[in-house]
Write a structure and sequence with these properties.
- The chain is an alpha/beta fold and 327 residues long.
- It folds into 2 domains: 213 residues, Alpha-Beta Complex (Spore Coat Polysaccharide Biosynthesis Protein SpsA, Chain A); 103 residues, no CATH class.
- The chain is built from 13 helices and 10 strands.
- Strands 1, 2, 3, 4, 5, 6, 7, 8, 9 and 10 form a 10-stranded mixed β-sheet that branches.
- Helix 6 packs parallel to helix 8, helix 9 packs antiparallel against helix 13 and helix 12 packs across helix 13.
């Protein structure tokens, strides 16, 4: 029933845990596709022992990035539903069984996502990020009420048919995009198909793992800003070309960009603000009133810029949209 796709790149230190979490699922109707994206550590040697299981296959390719690895996994999959699992995350044993239950309830949906535990493997601390209003429920919800509280990549399952219909070239995850590539895929899919939210924390999103993007310095993060802007531009161009537009997205994109700018204002990081407003497509920048843009670009008006963003956040919250850490 499920094709599980794991992109592997230099995760020798944790890949055993990830694979074990798949093999201990309470349902066994799956194949496991591990796409080795040119790893240079001994991760490939570690996973050889699992090949005695006929459900597992390894695909080797030269390093092309996580997007190319995930896309290749989808292309090589044989089952109707594709489950994504990164090489440093895990599932609890009932994950696939609960997703199967969700599919039986909503057979026409194209995206299914379970909530997760966010766990630091160094400290052992963990937190359940399930929205209170959906705990122990399986519900169709509006993705763009707030994508930040939606299930993350390693707890997301898509219909292979709808994935291929949405991305006719098989490029659901944009190749070359070094961050936000997963958001780019799921945002664009959400324009065409509903998300079924599974309010059971059956995924484990690990942090504190060597090599994760969260460990990058401020300078290294700035270099990734190009890819963040590319994500916004690609998503918005897709939305513009829709015959039936999702109005929740139009509201959210402004909230999201303001939230990002607020973080830069707090850090006095006008370099980032200037880059974002310069490199975003004009059609996105024009969503904002000109006086608002002038607030963001003038250091002397920082106080008023922050006050304005707080005001827009109040308006957002009055609509009852779910927020990170709330609802």
């Amino acid at each position: 029933m499920f094709s599980v796709v794991i992109p592997l790149y230099n995760k020798a230190h944790i890949i055993d845990r990830t694979i074990a979490s798949v093999l201990t699922q309470t349902m066994s109707d799956f194949e496991l596709i591990i796409v080795n994206d040119g790893s240079t550590d001994n991760g490939l040697d570690i996973i050889q022992k699992y090949l005695i299981d006929p459900r597992i296959k390894i695909i080797n390719q030269v390093n092309q990035g996580v997007s190319a690895a995930r896309n290749r996994g989808v292309k090589e999959s044989k089952f109707d539903y594709v489950a994504f699992l990164d090489g440093d995350d895990e599932w609890l044993p009932g994950f696939l069984a609960k997703v199967k239950e969700a599919i039986e309830l909503y057979p026409k949906a194209g995206m299914f996502g379970s909530t997760s535990w966010h766990k630091n493997i160094i400290t052992g601390s963990s937190s359940d990020v399930t929205l209170d209003r959906y705990k122990e429920k399986i519900k169709q919800i509006e993705f763009f009420e707030n994508p930040h509280i939606m299930p993350h990549t390693s707890a997301m399952i898509v219909s292979r048919k709808i994935f291929n219909q949405t991305f006719s070239n098989g490029d659901g995850f944009p190749v070359g995009m070094k961050c936000c590539e997963d958001l780019s895929c799921f945002y664009r899919m959400a324009f065409y198909t509903p998300l079924i939210y599974i309010g059971y924390p059956l995924g484990i999103r690990n942090s504190g793992v060597f090599g994760q993007i969260t460990e990058l310095s401020k300078e290294e993060r700035f270099k990734l800003l190009k890819h963040v802007v590319d994500f916004y531009n690609l998503t918005h161009r897709t939305w513009i070309n829709l015959e039936v537009k999702n109005n929740y997205y139009a509201i959210f994109i402004m909230y999201d960009l303001r939230h990002r700018i607020m973080a830069s204002l707090r850090d006095n990081d006008y370099k980032t603000i200037n880059y974002i407003l310069t490199e975003l497509d004009t059609v996105i920048v024009n969503l904002f009133p000109k006086f608002e843009l002038s607030l963001y670009l003038n250091r002397k008006l920082k106080f008023y810029a922050k006050c304005y963003i707080y005001f827009t956040k109040i308006l957002w919250r009055r609509k009852g949209y779910p927020r990170v850490g709330h609802s």
